[in-house]
Amino acid sequence: MISFFLCGCDWFRGGDKPLTKVIKEYKQQRVVKDTRGNLYKIAERYGGKSIPVLYSSDDGKTWKSAGSAETYLTYSAWGSVLTVDNEDTLYLSWSGNSAAVETLTQEDLLSQFKAVFFSKSTDGGKNWQEQIILNSKETAGTHPVIFVDSKKVIYICWYEKLFKGMIYFTFSSDGGRNWKEVESLRSGEDICFSKDSKGMVYLTYAGGEKKNMPFISFTEDRGKNWHTVTPGELKVLVKEPYTASIDDTMYLIFQAWIPNIFEAMPQGDAPTYELHYFTSKDRGETWSKMQKVK
Predict the structure, then answer these.
(1) N or C of the chain: less Cβ packing under 10 Å?
(2) Domain residues of the chain, as ranges?
């Protein structure tokens, strides 16, 4: 079940010192840390049938190969994401076609879809367990995001961009052996997970017909119920939104491009996005004014 609440924007308090921490967290979303202080990330460039995982034992100064996840169920992988639990198990999800080229039959060609895969490693990325597909043709999509909470419940979301623009969600409470039936949440893209110190899980994404609305859906009961808030329609285009909560203040941070109504959309060169944010003291019921990160 997902509820929706459009928030008013009626107060602002500038000069938040935790903002620096939020920005650092925002920029390091693709890097995860285990209990021993080791950092892990996916290599920036890869292709084909393996996903290289890198690790650093010196706080990111140097990176070495931890191992590779072989994507033998598909001929190419993309959009890989990584997370780690409190017992140093690594969890990996990625997008790919549901069947490998060399094994495709005529029936496969007609039935294949954009699949979301899952695997995990219990030895720091050296070896990866047998991968599984989490979705079906009816819930096809790409760009998964993954999160694991303190009770080792694994959350995975992805979205379908071409037709319905729907966000899909599933979770596993037994280490990835069994998964809850996939459910659709709402339309959106540029999704990401985060959490706060009280165990609240946030799913943040861009939406609206003009992609000018950042949304936060949050859950306290493993996705059984979701409550959604937004500062509303903005006069900017929104991408890559993220939620952080520090000292009971919620930060909604995102990239924004403010179009000039007297100029046409840039042709060839991409528009220039800049980092902006809102804050809320009441979990999104009211919001500050939008501020640019200086």
Answers:
(1) C
(2) 1-29+201-294, 31-187
- Residue type, position 216, single letter: I
CATH 2.120.10.10 fits 31-187, yes or no: yes
Phi-psi region of 23 (alpha: psi -120 to 50; beta: other; left: phi over 0): alpha
Share of the chain above pLDDT 70, in %: 85
Please check whether residue 228 is in contact with residue 4, taking contact to mean a CB–CB distance below 8 angstroms: yes
Tens digits of per-residue pLDDT, 110-142?
678 889 999 999 999 999 998 999 999 899 999
* Tokens 């500038």 sit on residue: 14
For residue 79 the two structure tokens come to 């959009």
CA–CA distance, 263 with 88 (Å, rounded to integer):
51
Cβ atoms of 22 and 30 within 8 Å: the answer is: no
CA distance 233 to 212: 6
